[in-house]
Write the structure tokens for this entry.
Amino acid sequence: MFLSAVKSICSGNLDSAEYFLLALSENDPDAKSYAFLGWLYGSQGRERDAVRCYFKAVRQDPDSGFPYNDFGVYLIGTGRSEASVKWFLKALHCRKFEQKHISLYNLALLYQIWNRPERSARFLNLALVYSPDFTEAVELLDRIADLKK
């Protein structure tokens, strides 16, 4: 059912995706389905529903970093970038999160926007420890280095 939801999202059929994700969350609730529902509702401007789903995702599986990171991205998209930092940091402390480099990159982007290149570089270097071939991190680190020249 999750695959059907993803296919619906990719084809732009958000009503169908919502149907599959709601059915999945009722029959076999997991953090991933709630996080995707949060993204879906957020993309539709349904802020309360989005936040509720992200919180359900975190409660469903507090050891998974995926919903924390996604909620942080959602907060940035709604203009609450300072609040997102807490969620990216929480994602980094989760045992079941293999994409720590993504949260670190998100933090680096925020600190670059806030004109804190040293902090941004620190997060980028950490991201490269987790994923040495992370092209976007290397490119951003190079841009930061060029600005210092």
Q: What stands out?
A: The chain has two domains: 1-82, 98-149. Residues 38 and 51 are 6 Å apart (CA to CA). The mean pLDDT is 92.
